[in-house]
Design a protein that fits this description.
The structure holds two protein chains of two kinds. By secondary structure, chain A is mostly helical. Chain A has one domain (23-274): ABC transporter involved in vitamin B12 uptake, BtuC, CATH 1.10.3470. In chain A, 75% of the residues lie in helices and 3% in strands. Chain A is built from 15 helices and four strands. Chain A has helices at residues 13-17, 23-43, 46-71, 79-96, 101-119, 128-148, 150-153, 174-197, 200-210, 212-217, 222-248, 258-271, 276-304, 307-332, 336-349; strands at residues 159-161, 166-167, 170-171, 250-252. In chain A, the strands form two sheets. A two-stranded antiparallel sheet of chain A has the order 1-4. A two-stranded antiparallel sheet of chain A has the order 2-3. The radius of gyration of chain A is 21 Å and the shape is globular. The mean pLDDT of chain A is 88. Chain B has two domains: 25-143 and 283-358, Response regulator (Rossmann fold), CATH 3.40.50.2300; 145-278 and 377-409, Response regulator (Rossmann fold, 3-Layer(aba) Sandwich), CATH 3.40.50. By secondary structure, chain B is α/β, with parallel strands linked by helices. In chain B, α4 links the parallel β3 (96-98) and β4. Chain B is globular. Chain B starts with a helix and ends with a helix. The chains are: A mainly alpha, B alpha/beta. The interface between A and B is large, with 44 and 46 residues.
Chain lengths: 355, 410
């Protein structure tokens, strides 16, 4: 990630495929963990933790979508709906059966995986834009179903309040406790995706993305792996929905509409398709950028304009800047932030002797 | 690279310092208001109204000697940014947060209760939040969709001279907010003996030709109650007009009731006769608005053009005025200004007889009733403007109270 690898020679396949490519990577990971679990939560204000929380939830969703879109080359505009499937499954379990979060969380994911695999069936015959429309149909059908079936949605208001999750009898509430909960789950999701990438399944996904007929020729069961990609990706989406549900204390499908699906697609495109690190970058970037732009304008907008005008300008300018920055980043590096990061690393890896 | 990083770091530190220094002397109201996103038509006119009212209060010496700061954050009608906005308001020490949007109200309800900060959801949000015992920190302060449904049926009854055997159509946006009043309408249909048929308009709500044709020519409704959002109210006016349904047999809930909707439908000429439900007064003819205009004149600035869109501008004034009144009660109890969210909650629950010269309904907020009664007025598009046809009224409180009790049992 952020270390140099000079002087390290790999002599076996196992070494090449290891999760930690270099010995120093262990220390980097340990340092990141210490930073996330010890330093950060006890040094910054809860407000900043709450922003990290939102990023963490977005990371889970983006990593999952990237498995499908980036690694397997199948597109989905239905991930918002899969999140709501996870959310309502967990909420129903938590309210009707008093299920604890460690049961509701995977259950929500599994239900979303099942639904996702069904929505993914058209991917066996169609690709690209056609598949995009098919998954869009999935999104709309799921939204409609939740809105109109009270057994799922809990009544005309289509919202189910869930109690705070408890761990060993202690409720997880407030931004700091939630921070530990969400960052742990996000960490597990990231490690899971990293491991998936270097497994047999992950390589099959990449083969399908690169050329599905060729993949079939070398013995990859397209039917199985395409649906598996949809299922795994939807599992992540479902977990994202459950995390939102526990974070907000309510399941409500209105926050998982088409715009949400599009937002997550934007995250992985900005971050870098097919890269776990890219999904993290993208999720953090899209969540953080509007907030940072607002901070900057609140600080400096008053110097340039009357207060009444600032109020009107901030939200609009934020949208414009957000769009412009995304375009600039993509023009600078079409393969996303992950590639930009790699370029920076490659530069510094031989620095200061670049030739 | 490092230079930029240092700059960024310095910037955020400066920001933190500025934020910290100000918070001590002022009463902060968190104000979520969208000038972008799905409901920007509402926000661009509504948000300035609230700011102008707070400016007026501060110009007159503040509330019990304390200045008010209205911290506005736009969340584009999305839930995650609304959560961030909420946490930001909490960090700035907000003693009250004005919410914006039904999904956002759902998402923040539990946090508000945990952090003991009252949240205002005027004219949207969950109807069962009117029950102050169940949602101690949610304050709808205006008629909820349930009360609006009751009022709409009462209005139809008055217009038709009784409802027995009549046919009423309910044309609504097919989302939870649109479906929320259905149980009330069904109960009232049984009680008043009218026939009810519901017509859903699927999102994004701009295609309702078939439903309107059905209402006008197959079902032949005697009265139409509409509950639509965003662009769809104007479409409903246009479509009803096109199929020749008389608009004086139509009453709209509060989010299809603004000048902007009429103008988008083709102007007051097209919408002549259309009835619109309001939870704040309409027009510029209120003393508080005159004071705001006076403030602008004294500063030598032109009047804000948002004022012309009086339905939303006046609601913005109400969104700020009722919370400020609650804060006034809280400060009377604690004159040193060190009030918390719980104090403001208690303050809001003392509001009674605060009408701002007719712009605000005769609210009476109590620990049990956070809706303040559920008052509405009906205005009619007539001769190029909205004309008031009823005074503040509420209807079928017993039915709504029964639904609130049932919701509390769940």
């Amino acid at each position: 990630m952020i270390h140099r690898e000079c002087g390290v020679f790999k002599t076996t396949y196992e070494a090449d495929m290891a999760l930690y490519p270099l010995p120093i990577a262990r220390w980097t990971v340990a340092a990141i963990l210490a930073g996330l679990f010890v330093v950060l939560p006890w040094t910054v204000h809860e407000y900043y933790l709450s922003i990290v929380n939102l990023c963490a939830v977005a990371v889970v969703g983006a990593v999952g979508l990237n498995i499908l879109v980036g690694s397997t080359g199948q597109i989905s505009i239905g991930h918002g709906a899969f999140m709501s499937v996870g959310a309502y499954t967990a909420a129903n379990l938590a309210v009707r059966l008093d299920a604890p979060f460690w049961l509701a969380l995977p259950a929500g994911g599994l239900m979303a995986a099942a639904v996702g695999a069904v929505v993914g069936v058209p991917s066996l015959r169609i690709k690209g834009l056609y598949l995009a429309i098919a998954t869009l149909a999935g999104q709309l059908i799921i939204e409609w179903t939740i809105n109109h079936v009270p057994w799922i949605s809990g009544g005309v208001q289509a919202s189910i309040e869930v109690p705070r999750p408890t761990l060993l009898g202690v409720p997880i509430e407030g931004p700091r406790a939630m921070y530990y909960f969400l960052v742990t789950v996000a960490g597990l999701a990231v490690v899971g995706a990293l491991n998936l990438q270097r497994s047999r399944v992950g390589r099959a996904f990449v083969a399908i993305r690169d050329h599905d007929i060729a993949a079939q020729l070398i013995g990859i069961d397209i039917f199985r792996y395409k649906l598996l990609a949809f299922a795994i990706s939807s599992f992540y989406a479902g977990v994202t929905g459950v995390l939102y549900t526990y974070y907000l204390g309510i399941a409500n499908y209105e926050q998982f509409q088409i715009t949400t699906s599009i937002d997550y697609l934007a995250m992985i495109i900005i971050g870098g398709l097919g890269s776990v690190l890219g999904s993290i970058f993208g999720a953090v970037f899209v969540t953080l950028l509007p907030i940072v732009i607002r901070w900057a304008m609140e600080a400096f907008g008053g110097l340039l304009m009357a207060p009444a005008v600032v109020h009107n300008v901030i939200p609009n300018l934020r949208l414009i800047l957000f769009g412009v920055l995304i375009i600039l980043f993509l023009v600078a590096e079409p393969e996303g932030l992950a590639r930009l990061w790699r370029n920076v690393r490659n530069y510094f890896r031989v620095w200061p002797f670049s030739y | 690279m490092t230079r930029y990083l240092a700059l960024l770091l310095g910037l955020s530190l400066a920001l933190a310092a500025v934020g910290g220094a100000e918070a001590a002397h002022e009463i902060v109201i968190g104000f979520q208001c969208d000038r972008t996103g799905a409901t920007q038509v509402v926000g661009v006119h509504l948000c300035p109204g609230a700011h102008d009212y707070v400016r007026l209060v501060n110009a007159k010496g503040g509330v019990e000697g304390h200045r008010i700061r209205l911290l506005e954050i736009d969340h584009e009608y999305k839930v995650p940014p609304a959560v961030e906005a909420y946490e930001r308001h909490k960090k700035e020490g907000a003693v009250l947060i004005v919410l914006y949007g039904t999904p956002q109200t759902y998402a923040l309800a539990q946090k508000l209760a945990e952090d003991r900060i009252p949240g205002i959801s005027a004219g949207f949000g969950r109807a069962d939040a009117a029950d102050g015992r169940r949602y101690p920190y949610l304050f709808p302060i205006a008629a909820t969709y349930w009360s609006q449904a009751g009022a709409a049926v009462k209005f139809a009854r008055d217009q038709l001279g009784g409802l027995k055997g009549k046919k009423i159509a309910y044309l609504f946006y097919d989302n939870p907010a649109g479906r929320e009043p259905i149980p009330i309408l069904e109960d009232l249909a049984e009680r008043e003996g009218f026939q009810l048929k519901i017509f859903a308009v699927p999102p994004p709500g701009v295609e309702m030709g078939a439903q309107v044709l059905d209402i006008a020519q197959r079902y032949r409704a005697d009265f139409v109650i509409t509950h639509l959002f965003g662009r769809s109210p104007s479409v409903s006016i246009k479509e009803l007009k096109r199929v020749g349904y008389p608009l004086r047999r139509v009453v709209s809930f509060v989010w299809g009731a603004a000048e902007a909707d009429i103008e988008a439908a083709g102007g007051f000429g097209v919408a002549e006769g259309y009835y619109a439900m309001q939870y704040a007064g309409v027009g510029g003819d209120y003393p508080v608005l005159e004071e705001i205009r006076e403030l602008y004149r004294k500063e030598g600035r032109p009047l804000p053009r948002e004022m012309a869109s009086s339905v939303y501008y006046n609601r913005g004034v109400l969104w700020a005025a009722v919370p400020v009144e609650g804060i006034r009660h809280a400060l009377r109890a604690r004159p040193d200004g060190r009030i918390t969210g719980s104090d403001v909650k208690a303050g809001l629950e003392k509001i009674k007889g605060f009408t701002l010269g007719g712009l605000v309904p005769p609210l009476e907020i109590t620990p049990e009733d956070h809706e303040g009664g559920g008052w509405v007025q009906i205005w009619q598009a007539r001769g190029g403007r909205f004309v008031r046809v009823t005074d503040w009224f509420k209807a079928y409180e017993d039915v709504i109270a029964r639904h609130l009790r049932e919701a509390a049992k769940k």
